[in-house]
């Protein structure tokens, strides 16, 4: 299963450790550039208020099966965490769409490192994607940055 | 960017057209089998109420850049739709976790066709993933099946 880069993420986060724990917790704006050959697929995207962005975490460790969530002391199975280090390092972000111009989306809420390959964009719909009261212990109390990291 | 299958989705949806428009709108239960070599990553997943499941839509048309949403008359740019046909056919589903046993997750809300390769499992957290009032016209009024399809 070979993925193609349909674009690239441009952000102020230059290297591992720069990005916030979850992009939605900070106000940083980023850009998503969609390559010319895929721009026909962006038609009508301007009518979406929020987008699901899937991107490839190209600096991840794909051999990891456990991770220690920020602020936790013991490691957890990687599929119970949002660590970038996992067998298929596909990140999921929900972003606010601010503008689109010439194939470049300006967004808020993206936690991608600068240069991360873009895989997909989908409309976010509260009707099916927003679920109240769901979570796991180590994500319920979240601050923008891990405890003790700043 | 090569993805590996970390497991497989088992569902009652055998072929294209069997699956509901969005899995969350029906009560069907499915199974997700994680392959033995990745099961260490499932530790602690039983503490999650809802999971994000990414799977590969292996019967998709990857050349499509437009799609006509169910009930609509004109086509839209594929990135403004949830069509399975897209350059990287990675599906995003949010499921209720019902049980885990021997590497097999029983879930509700998955819309995968039977046999779809599993790519990733992540914990869903309302704190970052639930956004109210977001959407796009053709997803606001959703019925489990497209208008006129039944």
Automatic annotation (TrEMBL), chains A, B:
Source domain of life: Archaea
Keywords: Methyltransferase, S-adenosyl-L-methionine, Transferase
Alphabetized CDD domains for the sequence: UPF0066
Domain TsaA-like intervals: 3-133
Alphabetical GO biological process terms: methylation
Keyword Signal carried by entry: no
Pfam families, A to Z: TrmO_N
UniProt KW Methyltransferase keyword: yes
InterPro entries: TrmO-like_N, UPF0066_cons_site, YaeB-like, YaeB-like_sf, YaeB_N_sf
One example GO MF annotation: methyltransferase activity
Family statement drawn from the similarity comment of this UniProt entry: Belongs to the tRNA methyltransferase O family.
Protein name: tRNA (N6-threonylcarbamoyladenosine(37)-N6)-methyltransferase TrmO
Organism, as annotated: Methanofollis fontis
């Amino acid at each position: 299963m070979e993925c193609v880069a349909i674009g690239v993420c441009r952000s102020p986060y230059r290297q591992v450790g720069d990005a916030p724990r979850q992009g939605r917790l900070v106000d940083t704006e980023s850009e998503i550039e969609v390559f010319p050959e895929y721009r026909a697929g962006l038609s009508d995207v301007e009518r979406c208020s929020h987008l699901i962005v899937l991107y490839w975490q190209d600096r991840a460790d794909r051999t990891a099966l456990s991770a220690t969530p920020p602020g936790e002391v013991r490691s957890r199975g990687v599929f119970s965490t949002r660590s970038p280090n996992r067998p298929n390092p596909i990140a999921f972000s929900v972003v606010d769409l601010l503008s689109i111009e010439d194939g470049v989306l300006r967004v808020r809420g993206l936690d991608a490192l600068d240069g991360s390959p873009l895989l997909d964009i989908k409309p976010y719909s509260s009707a099916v994607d927003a679920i109240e009261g769901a979570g796991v212990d180590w994500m319920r109390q979240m601050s923008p940055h891990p405890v003790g990291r700043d």
